[in-house]
Amino acid sequence: MLIPLKVDVMTWRTPWVNYAIMAVTVCVSILALFDMQLLKSLAGFGSDFLVHGGLLHLAGNMLFLWVFGNALNYKLGHALYLLFYLLAGLGASAVHYGFDGRPMVGASGAINGVMAGFLVFFPRNDVKMLWLPGIFYLHVFSCSSVWIILLWATWDVLYLVLGAGEGVALWAHVGGFVMGLAMATTLAVTQRIKPTPDEQTIFQVLGMRQ
User: Fold this and answer.
1) Quick one: which H or E segment has residue 132?
2) DSSP letters of 17-39?
3) Tens-digit pLDDT profile for the chain (210 aa)?
4) Over the range 131-140, which residues count as b (16 or more CB within 10 Å of their CB) and which as e?
5) Most buried residue, 50, 77, 95, 132, by most Cβ within 10 Å?
6) For the purposes of burial, counting CB atoms within 10 Å of the CB of 98, is it exposed (0-12), middle (13-18) or buried (19 or more)?
7) Which of 153, 148, 145 is nearest to 200 (CA)?
8) Model-level pTM?
9) Among candidate residues 45, 182, 162, 48, the one with its CA nearest the CA of residue 112
10) In Å, how far are 78, 80, 122, 150, 185 from 192, measured between CA atoms?
11) CA-to-CA distance for 197 and 136, rounded, in angstroms?
12) Upper half-sphere CA count for residue 15 (Cβ side, 13 Å)
């Protein structure tokens, strides 16, 4: 198991929007755990929709959002980051519905979009990782974000191909990632969001002009 702990990104802006998204997600998730009928009424869904999770899944989602979302919130600014997150979530839900046929409630797709955005704007920045290959052993190491994020994306695709990951909204993961990648690419290529002198986008790393 690979768990992200921290990213090596210098920030000067407090990521208030990401904090708010996390707070709302936690509240809604707890509501779903204890009152599913109320959640269905608020969401406007019938009986056939997918909610995957539990407290461990929620904790994992919030950890990923904390690690990658804070940095992307700093980079995009508050309003643009909120729009980015919501559109990534909508894209994830649309792709999931298109392939699965059921509406989906969950933040995983939007968080995958955030990770794709991080990949575009901070590909060379290190991510401190905790590796848990077994119960009685752990190892902490750092790795460039481009490798670790592409590894997670590849896992999702492989699970889809192999038909694994039952109960997990894998199409939402893939849809959110692709949506986030498309939006971040647009922002970078049009130079709506520019790297600072000590940063490089994925396109600069690949030797492509912007």
Assistant:
1) strand 126-134
2) HHHHHHHHHHHHHHHHHH-HHHH
3) 789 999 999 888 899 999 999 999 998 888 777 776 666 655 555 445 457 556 888 899 999 999 999 999 999 999 999 999 999 999 998 998 888 777 776 688 999 999 999 999 999 999 999 988 777 788 899 999 999 999 999 999 998 888 766 667 788 999 999 999 999 999 999 999 999 988 999 999 988 866
4) eeeeeeeeee
5) 95
6) exposed
7) 145
8) 0.90
9) 182
10) 14, 11, 16, 24, 10
11) 43
12) 22
> Hey, what amino acid is at 112?
N
Question: Which domains does the chain possess?
Answer: 2-205 (1.20.1540)
Give the three-state DSSP class for 112: helix
